[in-house]
Specification:
739 residues, alpha+beta, 7-stranded mixed β-sheet, 5-stranded mixed β-sheet, 19 helices, 28 strands, 26% strand, globular, molybdenum, Ald_Oxase/xanthine_DH-like, oxidoreductase
């Protein structure tokens, strides 16, 4: 046996293992699942934003062809508790009940009020129109500021207020004192419109009961199978050990599937009552009403600075639209941004306050970036305003205020310790790729000659807190769970490898990247690694996928578990080679005795010898398998510089993105092709918010952008070509990755 040059997997642009099944249609979406005796659910939803349910009669639906059962909220109330909120951000937060089916009032258009069960989905949908229901209209609550007035109509009358909570943070010097000594004080109001997630796959759930043992398997298009299992147990009373949750192939989420939805609880309760498997799949227009929305915020920003453009202080006051109910992490989403408003900048004072407000609209919750992009938008807009006020170039103002690379690790004014970064390098590379000076010169010439088509140049130098999250930090933020992640490595007798991960992918490329990580540590071929995920019976431990945590926390757990396998294998190899463990080298999957290169064992050979257990060290269990549960010590902090040139026709309003350049620093790159894809997707969604997407309600609280005909999701034809590049400053975690 001779050493062979083996190309490192980490950093290699591998084609995704997942894609062959996806592009050939050999997928297992939740809606594809069919079992014997399957029944279908359809949900009747309120057409009104706010109303009292005076009368509801589901019995006429039972007369429709194919209908097996029909239930109102009252009919199912005994078996269903309130849907959970896992993030009570303050001790006195107002937490209303959230029944999976409305009981006495509906509080947003689309609030579910009844369910029909039929032998096919079309019969179930048709029978909804037979349900008789009388509503007494109540006044809608739509404007965030009006909702806080003393005489405002109440979304939850029993709570006596539309104010869900007030969450403050103040650090550094007193902001009033800083304001007094500042040369420049600017106040601006920004608005984050509501957004509607548009994952490629709609939400769906299938529940199959095993009546004899009281067990249930729940298939759901979810980002969080492990969390869903726990929460469904609390809502329905089904013991957790009797629930198995499977996230099969999941077609995107962007935060919208980081949720415990009423439809999942209703499906489980109906399956329990009928003893039959049931399925529910949302229509796209139904999803616009019932899947939680993103953003929805008024941002009042105040900055204090010197006339030379040095930032002295920042004050942020938010009004955050909770919608009608507090869902799984609704109240915490804007608070995640609290730590990001200071961004990459040094200052003497920071003051933040967020007021959560109930409205009669679809609840909000996590959506791509979850509170952090909102913060980046506000501070970067404010820095541009400061540059204009003091007569400096926007990039120069940033240079005068950002944390320099030699200052890392750096504790920000918000209390986070940024472990690494180089904002200067990313910015200089982006400026060169963009042709910044030439574009500024062209901009000046157009302005001077009064050209009706003006050139706008956008600058963003951002950072973000990823890798959610150290469990003790979550404790301090009153979040109900931890931020650890689990991984297991199983060395099979034939030398193949199974990686079991607690993260649950929905398009990110976990299977490919986890294979690359494990292959490098173990020294086995990439093709010999299989990744198992998304099933609480097969992967019993996990905290799932959200907050750019999968690679930073889950991938690091895989790395650590693989290292444990190598150390176990080292003991067996040393025994077989009659050598001390300290005398063994390990390279490219082969243990060899230092000074005696012919004495060697591959890790695959060691795996088989361990399986036979004919000759393993005394007292050693005959397995190389290893587990690791990793609780991160810190967040990770990717950063970058994005530059955009936009032509705007001042006479018609027509807008055209002329060029877009971004240079991101995501730490160590596992698979550059996957990074490129994720960057392109993020750019598409950012541009979509800036130019196209908004959830619009009329004065009665009806969603008037409730279909794709009214809510523009951009396609590739609506987007420019992107120029992307990277810098790399490794993070302080086992892989050096930042998310």
């Amino acid at each position: 046996m001779t050493d062979q040059a083996v190309e490192r997997e980490v950093g290699r642009a591998r084609l995704r293992k997942e894609d062959a099944r996806l592009i050939t249609g050999q997928t297992n979406w939740t809606d594809n699942i069919s079992v014997t005796g399957l029944l279908h659910l359809a949900i009747l939803r309120s057409p009104m934003a706010h109303a009292r349910i005076e009368r509801i009669d589901v019995s006429p639906a039972l007369e429709r062809p194919g209908v097996v059962a029909a239930f109102s909220g009252r009919d199912l109330a005994e078996g269903l508790g309130s849907l959970p909120c896992a993030w009570p951000v303050t001790e006195d937060m107002v937490l209303p009940d959230h029944p999976p089916l409305a009981l006495e009032e509906v509080r947003h258009a689309g609030d579910p009020v009844a369910v029909v069960v039929a032998r096919d989905r079309y019969a179930a949908a048709d029978a909804l129109e037979a349900i008789e229901i009388d509503y007494e209209p109540l006044p809608p609550v739509l404007d965030l500021e009006d909702a806080l007035a003393e005489d405002a109509p109440l979304v939850h009358a029993d709570k006596g207020t539309n104010r869900a909570y007030v969450w403050p943070l103040a650090t550094g010097e007193d902001f009033e004192a800083v304001r007094q000594r500042a040369d420049v004080v600017l106040k601006r109001r920004y608005r984050q419109q509501r957004l509607i997630p548009n994952a490629m796959e709609p939400r769906a759930v299938v529940v199959t009961p095993l009546a004899a043992s009281g067990e249930y398997t729940v298939y759901s298009a979810t980002q969080i199978p492990h969390i869903l299992r726990i929460m469904l147990s609390t809502v329905t009373g089904v013991p957790e050990h009797k629930l198995r949750v499977i996230a099969p192939d999941v077609g995107g989420g962007f935060g919208s599937k980081l949720q415990v939805y009423g439809e999942e609880a209703v499906a489980l309760e109906v399956a329990r009552r009928l003893g039959r498997p049931v399925k529910w799949t949302e229509s796209r227009s139904e999803g616009y009403l019932a899947t939680h929305h993103g953003r929805g915020m008024i941002q009042d920003i105040e900055i204090a600075a010197t006339r030379e453009g040095r930032l002295l202080g920042l004050k942020v006051d938010l009004l955050a639209d909770m919608g009608a109910y507090l869902m799984l992490v609704t109240p915490g989403i804007p608070i995640l941004g609290a730590f990001m408003y200071p961004a990459i900048y040094k200052m003497d004072s920071y003051e933040f306050s967020c007021t959560g407000v109930f409205t009669t609209r679809t609840p909000t919750d996590a959506y791509r970036g979850a509170g952090r992009p909102e913060a980046t938008y506000a501070i970067e807009r404010a820095m541009d305003e400061l540059a204009a006020e003091v007569g400096l170039d926007p990039v120069e103002v940033r240079r005068r205020n950002w944390i320099r690379h030699e200052e890392f690790p750096y504790t920000s004014i918000a209390g986070l310790t940024y472990d690494s970064g180089n904002y200067e390098a990313a910015t200089e590379k982006a400026l060169a790729l963009f042709g910044y000076d030439d574009l500024r010169a062209e901009q000046r010439k157009r302005n001077e000659r009064g050209d009706p088509v003006r050139l706008g140049i956008g600058v963003s130098t951002y950072t973000e807190m990823c890798g959610l999250a150290p469990s003790r930090v979550l404790r301090d933020l009153r979040y109900a769970a931890g931020g650890w992640e689990a991984a297991s490595i199983r060395m099979l007798p034939t030398g193949k490898v199974e990686v079991v991960t607690g993260t649950s992918p929905h398009g990110q490329g976990h299977v490919t990247c986890w294979s690359q990580i494990a292959a490098d540590v173990l020294g086995v071929p990439f093709e010999d690694v299989e990744v198992v995920h998304g099933d609480t019976k097969v992967a019993p431990q996990g905290m799932d996928t959200y907050g750019s945590r999968s690679l930073v926390v889950g991938g690091s757990a895989v790395h650590r578990a693989a290292e444990k396998v190598v150390e176990k294998a080292r003991k067996v190899a040393a025994h077989l080679l009659e050598a001390d463990e300290g005398d063994l080298g390990f390279k490219n999957g082969v243990f060899s005795v230092k000074g005696s290169p012919e004495a060697r064992k591959s890790i695959q050979e060691v795996a088989f010898e361990t399986f036979t257990s004919h000759d393993v060290p005394d007292g050693m269990e005959p397995t190389l398998n290893a587990d690791h549960v990793l609780d991160p010590e810190n967040f990770s902090y990717p950063h970058g510089t994005h530059l955009c040139a936009v032509e705007v026709d001042t006479e018609t309003g027509q807008t055209r993105i002329r060029s877009y350049v971004c240079v991101d620093d995501v730490g160590r790159v596992i698979n550059p092709m996957i990074v490129e894809g994720q960057v392109h997707g993020g750019l598409a969604q950012g541009i979509a918010q800036a130019l196209y997407e908004e959830a619009v309600y009329d004065t009665e609280g009806n969603l008037v952008s409730g279909t794709m005909a009214d809510y523009l999701v951009p396609s590739a034809a609506d987007l420019p070509d992107f120029v992307t590049d990277r810098t790399e400053t490794p993070a302080a975690n086992p892989l050096g990755v930042k998310g």
